[in-house]
Amino acid sequence: MRTLGRVQRKLAGSIWVNNIPLEHHTPLELASKISIVLTEPIASKNLTVRELIALGRQPYTNWLGTLSPDDASKIKNAIAMVGLEALQYKKCYELSDGQLQKVMIARALAQDTSLILLDEPTTHLDLYHKVHILKLLKSIAHETGKTILFTTHEIDMAIQLCDKMVLLDQKGNTFGTPGELIQQKHFEGLFPPDTIRFDPDTASFKVNK
After folding, report:
1. Which of 86, 93, 129, 152 could be a cystine partner for 45, CB 3.0 to 4.6 Å?
2. What confidence score (pLDDT) does residue 63 get?
3. Among 111, 134, 127, 110, which residue's Cα sits nearest to residue 28?
């Protein structure tokens, strides 16, 4: 994920974006195509929610960082889509982890790229906020037509909420819809069977007691 976002160098292989090798894109060109939400803490939590989201417009502003009416509109739309209107003037240090994650998603939305990458977007969140964030991502993808690609260990939730999945199992790294992967029994070999088994009828994992 970090290599796709050009945050760290690739180990091998090649990545192409719009038929052009990733490394041939300038940082500014790439920032207009791919936005990324990582798990690292933000540089300054002293910013307001609105100010942090506005940073998503940086690839499009002039050298002074002046926001145009179009920039302001995209910021407003991102805030509304993620449901942050009531929090937009709060400082980021006042937010819970779940609220701050929504702010980071809104910043990626304001950046207005066709591809949004998220690395473990539900880390450190309780069950309610895990589900809330993943449902939010699904609704954003369907409403905007953007591609949202995220890594997760929440396999049960991914099966229920993702349109397509790739299983990084060090075997075939199989790709398909959750239904296809269940039919082809790819989930059944993910964990040692004496500890965890996959139940295809409920599309969930069960602990062997």
Report:
1. 93
2. 66
3. 111
- Give the model's pLDDT for residue 172: 80
Residue 6 tokens, joined: 């050009």
In the structure encoding, which two tokens stand for residue 167, read together? 């299983």
Could you give the 3-state DSSP secondary structure of residue 143? helix
Spans of the chain, pLDDT less than 50: none
- Total-model pTM: 0.90
Residue 32 burial (C-beta neighbours within 10 Å; 0-12, 13-18, 19+): middle
In the prediction, which pLDDT does 64 show? 67
Residue 83 CB coordination number (10 Å): 12
Answer for the pair 132, 98: CB distance below 8 angstroms, yes or no: yes
Q: How many whole angstroms separate alpha carbon 54 and alpha carbon 49?
A: 9
Q: How many residues does the chain have?
A: 209
Q: Please give the pLDDT value at position 122.
A: 92
CA 122: distance to chain centroid?
A: 9
